[in-house]
Amino acid sequence: xxxxxxxxxxxxxxxxxxxxRRLYESFGFEVEGVExxxxxIRGEFVDELKxxxxxxx
Length: 57
What we know:
The chain is an alpha+beta fold.
C-alpha cells in the first residue's frame, strides 16, 4: 500500500476476536473506534472495532 501511495489502512474486527486484534496491533494498527453491539454472534451481540494504521505523512 505504501508503494502505491496510500496514506492509511483500516479494517474492522469483532471485539471477542482477541487473536486477530493482537495480530493487527503487532503490525501497528490501533483501535480508532467502537461500534457497540454491532453484530449477533452465537446469540450474543458483540462490538465491532475499527482499526487504522497510518502509512505515511
